[in-house]
Amino acid sequence: MQDEKEKMSSVSLEGTISEVVIKQKRPLLLRGKELEEFKRKHKIKQKGAPAKCWLGVPLIVDNSAFGILVVQDYSNPETYTQEDVQLLEFIAVQIAASIQRKQMEKRLIQLSRAVEQNPASIVITDPDGNIEYVNDKFTEITGYSYEEAIGQNPRILKSGETPAQVYQILWQTITSGKVWKGRFHNKKKNGELFWEEAIIRPVIDDHGKIINYLAIKEDITKIKETEDAFQNLFKQNQQLLEAITSILIVMDHEEKIIRWNRAAEETFGIQAQDVIGKTLLQSGIKWDWSEITQAVQKCRDERIRVDIPDLQLTDATGNEHFVNLHIVNYGHEDGFSGFLILGEDITKWKTMQSQLIQAQKLESVGQLASGIAHEINTPIQYIGDNVRFLQETFKDTEPLLSFFNEQQNPDKLSARYQELMDYAREIDLSFLLEDVPSAFEQTTEGITRVAEIVRAMKEFTHPQQKEKEIVDINKALRNTILISRNEWKYVADMETRLSDSLPTTLGYLGELNQAFLNIIVNAAHAVKEVVKKGEKGKITVTTYSKGDSIRIEISDTGCGIKKEHLNKIFDPFFTTKEVGKGTGQGLTIAYNAITQKHGGKIWCESERNKGTTFFIELPVSF
To answer: Where are the extended beta strands (E) located within 25-176?
Structure first.
């Protein structure tokens, strides 16, 4: 059925009986003197010819009246009865439902377009794995058209590169009603190999039967190539570091150099024959001499080892180097004999560290994509369930709607009133009237949820900035919390205490987002270590202003950090996680972003088995 007129001009109801009915949200029947008395009491404005009998029923959706259905008789004050009120109420309910359905259809069209234009590849199969639907992204990535894909099995993408065990575990998982996550090394129509990150979940009907499988897949070929490249680079540098011997410089009690090994020659660009017998100060090394002399003096006076990390120097050829130095004294218990300077040239290591930090950022993007796909998949599933329910409901009520649409004579409606009521009971209309609004409400919530996630991800993945810009810290935190929800929602409740009067800061939004994300994900992992099955911990994010600074606190009720580790947590590659479960770069990235990029401060307080709080201070923008 199509409306003859999509838009109708509105009529003002101010000062009319209809306005009273809409406000009270109750039907109203007025006859003869009762009608005249009502007009006087409510100071009703007369519009048009005065009626003798007036009946109006509000159109209500979700307990909100948005219109009114009115019938009037201009000659007989006894025309309408309470039965007519009931009938008109029934008609009003159907009209309201029809209007709401049309609004819902519009929303569903929008959702359908969102799915069709989704940046992820979406595939729906029947229980046997035969493809029933693919979106445009699937055809774009694989090269198979929609028509070529429908009816085929996803095995058309098999390249032989993915182990058979992966498929075996996949089918065992999804046929048991669980969600499978993993990677495929697939083949496009043109034979080109590509990598996909996939989430596949069963679609289950009300009877617990699997009726479809839904796959949301992301082309991660470039990410995988980057991962492999950095893994190879890391292995190469490891082999290189293992092959290089440490710097060794030996000085006697007069601080004259008596040994200068090959690693020292290569690092400083100075041959041993040119420095033996000279003091370190006479060696010609270009570095921070104040730091070196203080360290040597401290080692001599206190007889302790002194470490100088990340010392920058320039060799004889003008090249810049970074070294870690360790100065120790040697000699007998009753005397001082001299110093040993041990060191490692960490120039290449620092370069690799920078590359690995970037790799960790790419990895976090991949993890977020997987989590966000899961977050979007959940509301889409119950939107689909509700749409199917509404389709079935419309089929049941369509005979009633068709009947009322065809009947123009009120007498015929009255004559068939009992027949209509019997049919209403047959389709359990009262049940439908209770559940249909709930289905609409859930569907609307699902659409809103998907929109929120997409907006947050768009703002989170802020492009690299060359210049600082005004940053709303509260907004950045809300977006980060939303897109990282899949990391913490199973293990912790999230509480936010964000100041309404928080000032802004000048900064790089992308860098700040990454710092907040790393700390929140770490908090979720810490909570996960201590919560029992069925229980949840808590993560609290707080913001407030303090003088000329913005203070951010991210607290968790997780496992806490050992005291001996507190001064190391921001060191590159430091991690307390098991091998393969952490690179030790997350907090380093956060530290560099806050302190080096924004001139802020970051520190933490922790108590073992009680929790940890990270504090961040950023300057206020003026």
So the answer is: 28-31, 53-61, 64-73, 121-125, 131-134
Nearest Cα to Cα of residue 104 among 449, 430, 447, 405: 447
Looking at residue 580, the DSSP 8-state letter turns out to be T
Among 70, 361, 354, CA closest to 227? 361
CATH of 462-619, one of 3.30.565.10, 3.30.950.10, 2.60.260.20, 3.30.70.890: 3.30.565.10
pTM of the model: 0.38
CATH of domain 10-80: 3.30.450.40
E strand or H helix that includes residue 171? helix 164-175
- Beta strands 492-498; 537-546: pairing state: parallel
Can you name the CATH fold of 240-345?
A: Beta-Lactamase (3.30.450)
Report residues of the chain scoring pLDDT below 70: 1-11, 108-118, 234, 237-245, 332-335, 353-387, 389-390, 392-394, 396-436, 438-466, 572-585, 622
Q: d(Cα 210, Cα 129) in Å, to the nearest integer?
A: 11
**What residues contact 61, with CB distance under 8 A and at least 6 apart?**
96, 97, 99, 100, 437
- Amino acid (1-letter code) at residue 450: V
Which distant-in-sequence residues (6+ apart) come within 8 Å of 568 by Cβ? 574
Interhelix angle 347-406/82-116, rounded to 10 degrees, is 150
Distance CA 83, CA 329 (A): 106
User: What is the dotted CATH code of the domain comprising 118-219?
Assistant: 3.30.450.20
